[in-house]
């Protein structure tokens, strides 16, 4: 095994071009588990820890450009205002120690259907900035996940950053696990209201081979909100709309039975999470900006 | 001498029995300097690695180690063919192959060993061992194990149970029959039946199986290891190495928890074999994945119960059939069967009982000792039955329990009269009387939500929607010490000497300190009995006699008893020396009731006669070695289960308050109160720590912990801390503890073994509370969200 | 490969490090610092928690090579880094010993590093804050009650406003 330690981004891209099978290593929270348990023996480890720009973020207009290796702890502490859904999701990742190392870029690289950031990225709207010595391209996050633990990166590409739309309305994220902390998602659901263009977007985690948007549910809700003029009136949502939204969200699932949960439970739980997150987000929209959610 | 100012101050020795003395190893453990087995290091040492079977039942058609042996850095590769002497071992039945004997009977069974200069070299070499497996039909439950033509996993059994079991795939079977169930059933106004299931729980101690074997010049080996019972290891290792026991010197190294999981051998014999083969020290450390295959687990169980009562709520009869899955090898299955059978009814008076308990051989992971074994499984079922009966009678579940609670003088289903306090009703009363935790604790002052107080926690699954509170109660009974006629003894060597003008006590036992605090208690006993504050603990090793196992809630009782007895012998010898030396000078030396206190010899009336240091200086140390036994027990009759089987019983009661998100099936345990009788709390801080720790393990079994075995392949599906979940601090609630101290006159200081009882009733109390909240008849633990949502 | 790093204030190096080794292995097996514990090696127990450039992380998930040039503080170095004399305990260490928070002790070093970090950030945490901060550290012996007691005790002894070492 070789340990490659590029000092900067161009060097990292060059190394990846030279060794397309090299495994990028940032927080180590996925890769090191695989190495410790002898599940993986890459010929090259590509340590991105020294590439400073991966650890920074910046705001450009409507987007936050989040460096691939910015730890979840920073997303929680510093980016909760522009990225509230992602911050909520980040708070559910592993443990404080993991949140100090793990990053959205790592989550994308691993592309596990259970990764906590994916639903929040799908709901917010995001593009993955993939780079190689050949250049840089933006991959819409919905197109990034290509299969179980597979993504759209070319062998010579690395994730430089994720460009995430700044929130213009309330966002929510909820995840079911069988423990109250430090747990991998049995399933998860994210919802973002986008009042500026009167749309709603969602993300479903751990309930299909890849993270997915529940598009039928989104279309239904977007239409229902428009039809009744609810964006303008901010009236309570009809219970039938909430119910239908939950059912349609569950319909987006293609879950499996595994050691963490059954397919039937996942479908059921996604419906519940969709209803609840919609309720919380709509309450927040009605209450106006900056109001804390009240208990049910 | 009487002018010596030190003689004027009398008084109690500090840090004795009954005080919350600090742990002697506390400072080392908080600074990181305490040496656990996995921390050991030796110049020139090699790393041992185990190749394990991916199959649960297979014949090994061919095994080729050539390529592995040729790997640079590899010093030895060993298989079954390389074993020098005995090829099998076992705690109760010698049925476990040291390395697979041509057949593997469970997933993860050791097949070959490698010693190399780096763990990665050893792993790569192990991957180059070519094994050709031919898969065999699986035995996975009672039906497949006892079906006509079922593969017999251990043909030609000659063990003590072979003659009486109904099928060779049954390890042991124990009925307990008392009274006339048929007649009682005819009189019963209400009968409730139920089928229950307990999943396979793992001890999940944090310190992985580890040790270091160092070959010695005399052809023997020094083994430093984390274990629960040094001498039982020794007895099993010696025949495997083909060495006399005195050529194997074992020393306990730091143990990172045990809970039963270190009662069987793991890497002990393997490391020694590699060390003797290579002539080099060999260290073996399992990682978490391997640890799940490196030790036995709690027996999963299926239990069928029938309870009958009068309409007033008097229990008339109980029948039970308890089927425990012992997995591929016996381990302590026979003792688990004995516990399950004899404690099947719980802490209740029932005159008519018909119980059958048995353990199976299957191709599932081997199961054996885990905290509360046999009694944990039964308690989940009989407490569920008591709630069901209360519902059927329309009575309060706690009241029904109190009405039928056993007490001192009650007769167990085994015919044994309980001859010590059995405050079952009182424990229930106390735990029920504790104040209830406030409702809606997640609601903060401004009406906002603190997610951490809700089911799902930070995962943000509810802000209070569909959250329902439930309260449940349970009580349990556990035997203390080794039962059924086992010669259960401990050895202690105590030495009183003077150093720098001060008396010093050295205590030497082979007791495995696994975290329970036995060493603290030994220090306290020595202080109390010998009136000396400075106590030095000799490392636990095999240069002193056996201390038995750190299990069965027995160490404070039995090794504590041995230390007390040895101290008493030392005291008598010291007083005899004092009489011989100073008796002529002071008539009080001839009086009865002389004590040792605060470094002095003191009369019954408090007069100081001498300084201990003066007795000891310029003379031989005073020393005594005692082999101490609790009163004998007897085996259960094989047909009726009658017999004085247990030396002592231990009782705890729990009240669980839970909040259930009934839509998602997620549970938050809000509070888990416990009342337990400990006879005498030798160290109150340590005893509450034991109770809280045992309670938390019961919580794990109730709502999350299970080793999931694929029924189609008998392979473990979740051997990691990612998918075998144990409670975090956000899952574990406040655990208020009410300790009762009713002395058992048969035990040292009146104490009662305390470690296991809290693990029993915690689980059924939580499930009872979840039933109250959800309205569902839950019959299986761990309770999963699927069970609560009907998915 | 060679790895150079600072551990508990001392510049150290190790040679012949295998590229797949973790910082935890490096500390325990090569640098003679086994205080950080190897309970799960998958970031699920917190027993190996160390401060890496001041931030608590699981040493098992940091590749040894990633620690090149970095500053690491382990449980063995907490007292020294707090300026305490040889053999002295930090307030958190003392509180763990006093409160009965230690049984087998295998989780203790990681918990102490995590609790120490919490009290640096928040000298007077609520119970819920303590639970959230320690949720990445599993303990199998104590049921956590006495660990909470220890953190409360350490916070009370140090007191808000006083200098925390």
TrEMBL record, chain A:
Cross-referenced PANTHER family: XANTHINE DEHYDROGENASE SUBUNIT C-RELATED (PTHR42659)
Signal peptide: none
Protein name in the entry: Carbon monoxide dehydrogenase
Gene Ontology MF terms: FAD binding; oxidoreductase activity
Keywords: FAD, Flavoprotein, Oxidoreductase
Domain FAD-binding PCMH-type residues, every copy: 1-169
Organism per entry: Streptomyces mashuensis
Automatic annotation (TrEMBL), chain B:
Tree of life domain: Bacteria
Listed Gene3D superfamilies: Aldehyde oxidase/xanthine dehydrogenase, a/b hammerhead, Aldehyde oxidase/xanthine dehydrogenase, molybdopterin binding domain
Any Pfam family the entry gives: MoCoBD_1
Renumbered residue ranges of the record's region Disordered: 1-26
Domain Aldehyde oxidase/xanthine dehydrogenase a/b hammerhead: 31-137
Matching PANTHER family: XANTHINE DEHYDROGENASE, XANTHINE DEHYDROGENASE SUBUNIT D-RELATED
Protein known as: Oxidoreductase
Automatic annotation (TrEMBL), chain C:
The UniProt record lists the keyword Lyase: no
Gene3D superfamilies, per the entry: 3.10.20.30, [2Fe-2S]-binding domain (1.10.150.120)
Top-level division of the source organism's lineage: Bacteria
SUPFAM superfamilies tied to this protein: 2Fe-2S ferredoxin-like, CO dehydrogenase ISP C-domain like
GO MF, one annotated term: oxidoreductase activity
Alphabetical list of InterPro entries matching this protein: 2Fe-2S-bd (IPR002888), 2Fe-2S-bd_dom_sf (IPR036884), 2Fe-2S_ferredoxin-like_sf (IPR036010), 2Fe-2S_ferredoxin-type (IPR001041), 2Fe2S_fd_BS (IPR006058), Beta-grasp_dom_sf (IPR012675), Diverse_Oxidoreductases (IPR051452)
Domain 2Fe-2S ferredoxin-type: from-to ranges: 1-78
Keyword tags: 2Fe-2S, Iron, Iron-sulfur, Metal-binding, Oxidoreductase
A Pfam family: Fer2
Name used for this protein in its record: Carbon-monoxide dehydrogenase small subunit
Organism whose genome encodes this protein: Streptomyces mashuensis
Gene name linked to the record: coxS
């Amino acid at each position: 095994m070789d340990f490659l330690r590029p000092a900067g981004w161009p060097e990292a891209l060059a190394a990846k071009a030279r060794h397309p099978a090299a495994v990028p290593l940032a927080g180590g929270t996925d890769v090191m588990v695989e190495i410790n348990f002898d599940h993986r023996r890459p010929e090259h480890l590509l340590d991105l820890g020294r590439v400073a720009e991966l650890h920074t973020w910046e705001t450009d207009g409507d987007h936050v450009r989040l460096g691939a290796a910015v730890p979840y702890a920073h997303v929680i502490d510093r980016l909760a205002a522009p990225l509230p859904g992602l911050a909520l999701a980040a708070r559910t990742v592993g443990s404080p120690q993991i949140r100090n190392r793990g990053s959205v870029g790592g989550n994308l690289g691993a592309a596990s259907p259970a990764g906590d950031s994916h639903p929040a990225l799908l709901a917010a709207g995001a593009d993955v900035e993939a780079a190689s010595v050949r250049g840089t391209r933006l991959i819409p996050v919905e197109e990034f996940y290509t299969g179980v633990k597979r993504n759209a990166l070319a062998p010579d590409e690395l994730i430089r950053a994720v460009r995430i739309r700044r929130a213009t309305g309330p966002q929510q994220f909820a995840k079911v696990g069988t423990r109250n902390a430090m747990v991998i998602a049995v399933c998860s659901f994210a919802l973002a209201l986008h009042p500026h263009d009167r749309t709603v977007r969602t993300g479903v985690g751990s309930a299909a081979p890849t993270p997915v948007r529940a598009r039928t549910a989104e279309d239904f809700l977007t239409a229902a909100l428009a039809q009744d003029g609810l964006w303008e009136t901010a009236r309570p949502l009809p219970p039938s709309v909430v119910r239908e939204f939950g059912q349609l969200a569950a319909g987006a699932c293609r879950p499996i039975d595994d050691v963490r949960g059954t397919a039937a439970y996942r479908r059921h739980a996604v419906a519940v999470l969709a209803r609840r997150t919609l309720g919380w987000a709509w309450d927040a929209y009605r209450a106006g900006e900056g109001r804390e959610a009240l208990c049910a | 001498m009487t002018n010596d100012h030190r003689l004027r101050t009398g008084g109690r020795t500090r840090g004795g029995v009954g005080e919350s003395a600090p742990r002697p190893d506390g400072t080392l453990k908080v600074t990181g300097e305490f040496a656990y087995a996995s921390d050991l290091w030796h110049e020139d040492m090699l790393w041992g690695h185990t190749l394990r079977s991916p199959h649960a039942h297979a014949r090994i058609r061919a095994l080729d180690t050539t390529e592995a042996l040729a790997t640079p850095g590899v010093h030895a590769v060993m298989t079954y063919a390389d074993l020098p002497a005995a090829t099998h071992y076992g705690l109760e039945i010698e049925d476990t192959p040291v390395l697979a004997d041509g057949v593997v009977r469970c997933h993860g069974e050791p097949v070959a060993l490698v010693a190399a200069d780096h763990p990665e070299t050893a792993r790569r070499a192990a991957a180059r061992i070519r094994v050709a497996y031919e898969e065999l039909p699986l035995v996975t439950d009672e039906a497949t194990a006892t079906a006509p033509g079922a593969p017999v996993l251990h043909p030609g059994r000659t063990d003590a149970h072979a003659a009486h079991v109904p099928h060779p795939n049954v390890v042991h079977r124990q009925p307990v029959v008392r009274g006339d169930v048929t007649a009682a059933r005819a009189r019963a106004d209400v009968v409730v039946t139920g089928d229950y299931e307990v999943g396979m729980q793992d001890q999940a101690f944090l310190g992985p199986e580890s040790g270091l074997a160092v070959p010695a010049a005399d052809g023997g080996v020094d083994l430093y290891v984390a274990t629960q019972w040094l001498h039982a290891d020794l007895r099993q290792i010696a025949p495997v190495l083909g060495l006399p026991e005195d050529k194997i010197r074992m020393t306990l190294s730091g143990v990172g928890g045990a809970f039963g999981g270190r009662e069987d051998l793991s890497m002990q014999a393997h490391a020694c074999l590699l060390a003797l083969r290579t002539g080099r020290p060999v260290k073996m450390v399992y990682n978490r994945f391997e640890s799940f295959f490196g030790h036995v687990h709690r027996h999963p169980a299926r239990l069928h119960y029938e309870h009958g009562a009068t309409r007033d709520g008097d229990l008339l009869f109980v029948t039970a059939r308890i089927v425990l899955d012992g997995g591929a090898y016996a381990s302590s299955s026979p003792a688990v069967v004995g516990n399950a059978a004899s404690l099947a009814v719980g802490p209740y008076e029932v005159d008519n009982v018909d119980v059958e308990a048995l353990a199976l051989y299957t191709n599932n992971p081997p199961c054996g000792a885990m905290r509360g074994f046999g009694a944990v499984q039964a308690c989940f079922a009989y407490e569920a039955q008591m709630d069901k009966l209360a519902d059927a009678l329309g009575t309060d579940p706690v009241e029904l329990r109190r009405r039928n609670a056993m007490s001192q003088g009650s007769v167990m289903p085994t015919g044994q009269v309980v001859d010590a306090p059995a405050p079952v009703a009182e424990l229930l009363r106390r735990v029920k009387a504790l104040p209830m935790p406030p409702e809606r604790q997640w609601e903060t002052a401004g009406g906002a939500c603190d997610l951490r107080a809700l089911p799902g926690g930070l995962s943000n699954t509810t802000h209070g929607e569909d959250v329902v509170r439930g309260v449940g109660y349970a009580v349990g009974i556990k035997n203390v010490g080794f039962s059924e006629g086992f010669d259960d003894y401990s050895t202690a060597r105590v030495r009183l000497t003077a150093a720098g003008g001060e008396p010093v006590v050295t205590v030497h036992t082979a007791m495995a300190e696994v975290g329970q605090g036995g060493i603290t208690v030994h220090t306290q006993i020595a202080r109390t009995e010998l009136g000396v504050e400075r106590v030095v603990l000799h490392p636990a090793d095999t240069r002193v006699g056996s201390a038995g196992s750190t299990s069965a809630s027995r160490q404070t009782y039995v090794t504590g008893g041995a230390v007390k007895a040895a101290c008493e012998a030392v005291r008598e010898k010291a007083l005899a020396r004092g009489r011989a030396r100073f008796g002529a000078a002071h008539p009080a030396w001839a009086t009865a009731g002389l004590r040792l206190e605060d470094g002095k010899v003191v009369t019954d009336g408090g007069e100081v006669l001498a300084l201990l240091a003066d007795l000891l200086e310029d003379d031989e140390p005073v020393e005594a070695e005692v082999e101490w036994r609790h009163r004998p027990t007897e085996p259960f009759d094989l047909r009726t289960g009658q017999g004085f089987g247990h030396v002592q019983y231990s009782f705890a009661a729990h009240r669980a308050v839970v909040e259930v998100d009934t839509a998602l099936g997620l549970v938050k345990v809000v509070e888990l109160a416990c009342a337990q009788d400990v006879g005498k709390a030798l160290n109150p801080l340590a005893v509450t720590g034991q109770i809280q720790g045992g309670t938390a393990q019961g919580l794990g079994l109730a709502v999350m912990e299970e080793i999931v075995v694929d029924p189609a392949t008998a392979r473990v599906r979740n051997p990691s801390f990612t998918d075998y979940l144990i409670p975090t601090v956000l899952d574990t609630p406040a655990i208020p503890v009410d300790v009762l101290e009713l002395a058992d006159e048969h035990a040292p200081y009146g104490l009662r073994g305390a470690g296991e009882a809290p693990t029993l009733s915690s689980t059924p109390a939580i499930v009872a509370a979840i039933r109250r909240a959800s309205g569902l008849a839950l019959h299986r633990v761990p309770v999963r969200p699927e069970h609560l949502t009907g998915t | 490969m060679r790895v150079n790093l600072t551990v508990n204030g001392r510049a150290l190096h190790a040679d012949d490090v295998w590229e797949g080794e973790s910082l935890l292995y490096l500390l325990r097996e090569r640098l003679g610092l086994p205080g950080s514990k190897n309970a799960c090696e998958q970031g699920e127990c917190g027993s190996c928690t160390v401060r890496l450039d001041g931030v608590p992380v699981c040493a098992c998930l940091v590749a040894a090579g990633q620690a090149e040039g970095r500053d690491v503080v382990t449980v063995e170095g907490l007292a020294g880094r707090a300026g305490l004399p040889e053999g002295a305990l930090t307030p958190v260490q003392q509180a763990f010993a006093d409160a009965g928070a230690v049984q087998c002790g295998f989780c203790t070093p990681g918990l102490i590093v995590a609790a120490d970090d919490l009290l640096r950030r928040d000298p007077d945490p609520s119970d819920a804050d303590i639970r959230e901060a320690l949720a990445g550290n599993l303990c199998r012996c104590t049921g956590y009650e006495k660990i909470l007691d220890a953190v409360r005790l350490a916070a009370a002894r140090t007191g808000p406003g006083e200098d925390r070492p």
